[in-house]
């Protein structure tokens, strides 16, 4: 059996990634520069379109997303699905870490722990997920995010562990 037929080699070659909006709008830039280029472009990654929320701010170690949940985000019991809140929080944590990357680095979420503090409905109004980097090492970063309603009340919070690695070629 040759090394080309081993499961790990086949799996890694099958996981070719598509060029991302970050690749298209900010190739060769630092993470913060990439995020700012994405914001300036007005383009939205698919998840923001699907769940109808926006990327609104990026600073070093900080990322903010906002959205008003509508019927598309409801679960069968009449509140906003926890996955909507988790997605906002994961996006905020991930992009906060992204803002600290060099042009040669990428990241992926290893763990996301979400705590739900209050039920979310359409009456919650505009939701704001603010993510901040807690620590950033050579291989691992830690971030936290808070999701608040239009009155600033805490609805959910999250902590995240993220793997930092060399950016793969497209």
Automatic annotation (TrEMBL):
Highest taxon of source: Bacteria
Residues forming coiled coils: none
Gene Ontology cellular component terms for the protein in this record: cytosol
InterPro entries in UniProt: HotDog_dom_sf, PAAI_dom, Thioestr_dom
Molecular function, one GO term: 1,4-dihydroxy-2-naphthoyl-CoA thioesterase activity
Record keywords, A-Z: Hydrolase
Keyword Amino-acid biosynthesis part of the UniProt annotation: no
SUPFAM superfamilies from the UniProt entry: Thioesterase/thiol ester dehydrase-isomerase
Domain Thioesterase: 78-155
PANTHER family in alphabetical order: 1,4-DIHYDROXY-2-NAPHTHOYL-COA THIOESTERASE 1, BLR5584 PROTEIN
Record-given protein name: Thioesterase domain-containing protein
